[in-house]
Write a structure and sequence with these properties.
The protein is α/β, with parallel strands linked by helices. The chain is built from nine helices and seven strands; from the N terminus they run βαβαβαβαββααααβα. Strand 1, helix 1 and strand 2 form a beta-alpha-beta unit. The longest helix has 19 residues.
């Protein structure tokens, strides 16, 4: 497949980490973090972690009615507002066309992710799990694969040595939290009971996407001829109650597995795996 360049370059970095407690979020769309890890992000931010989010696409197809240019502008403003609610330090927009990441070479996106990892030097990365099943969205699939490769190669100086001419250095990501819609490989459950309202508030900051969520829910109910009166009563301009119910149901089911009221689930990886864990447990200096 011939490579294509994104129409706009990533925005210049506004803020840089002041500590080594840095988290980088690599996601496809503006609301991915809030849906899949919003409570955990709020929890980490409250513990003093500096959190930077990279959003790969421009969300131009995240509405049935808004024009693409308006939607791109609105979506970025909404992402910044959600970031403030959760405590993110900055949001970086790569602005690939929404739904069309497959039109670009995987290595093109991987290089951008490696450069961002070397720029922000995160200890922790959150991203999509490339091995989780039943993921229908091609943008999620592309980000997942590019991210896992970037995490694996960012410490290797033989990958993209041109980065070093700009003062960057190889960087190893110590921990990764992988999320997914169907997170069947999850092995880590994080209690977000004290952060559920923050998660919902951040989700609702994505006004355009929440309206789309209601629109698609109505279409699904109509197609299956389920609860016609309830379907007719759904109001895309008054979505807070529905989003609140959906999130609490979803996070409540995860929480039950570990005895929490609300939780989020991840597949966790530590650099070095079992060897590092064993040495750590031995207490060696």
């Amino acid at each position: 497949m011939a490579g294509r360049k994104s129409r706009k370059k990533a925005e210049p970095k506004k803020y840089m980490p002041a500590t080594d407690k840095v988290i980088l979020l690599l996601v496809a769309h503006a609301d991915d973090t809030e849906f899949l890890a919003g409570g955990t992000v709020a929890k980490f931010a409250g513990e003093g972690w500096e959190i930077f989010e990279v959003i790969a696409t421009d969300n131009q197809r995240g509405s049935f009615d808004l024009p693409a240019k308006q939607l791109i502008k609105d979506s970025e403003a909404e992402a910044l507002a959600a970031g403030k609610i959760l405590g993110k330090k900055d949001v970086i927009f790569l602005r690939y066309p929404d739904g069309m990441l497959r039109d670009y070479r995987l290595n093109h996106l991987r290089e951008k992710f490696i450069k961002l990892i070397r720029t922000y030097k995160p200890r922790i990365v959150f991203t999509f799990d490339p091995w989780a099943p039943f993921e229908p969205h091609p943008d999620h699939q592309m980000v997942a694969q590019a991210a896992v490769e970037a995490i694996g190669f960012s410490q290797n100086p033989k990958f993209y040595p041109e980065h070093f001419k700009k003062g960057l250095k190889p960087h190893l990501v110590a921990e990764v939290y992988y999320f997914a819609k169907a997170n069947v490989h999850a092995d880590t459950i994080i209690d977000i009971s004290n952060f559920i309202d923050q998660k919902i508030e951040a989700l609702c900051a994505h006004d355009s996407q929440m309206k789309l969520t209601i629109d698609e829910m109505k279409l699904a109910l109509q197609a299956n001829k389920v609860a016609p009166k309830t379907t007719a009563s759904l109001d895309r301009n008054n979505y807070r109650g529905v989003i609140d119910l959906m999130v609490k149901m979803y996070c409540g089911e995860i929480g039950k597995k570990a005895g929490y009221q609300f939780a989020e689930a991840f597949r966790y990886e530590l650099a070095g795996g079992e060897i590092v864990k064993a040495i750590k447990d031995m207490g060696l200096e």
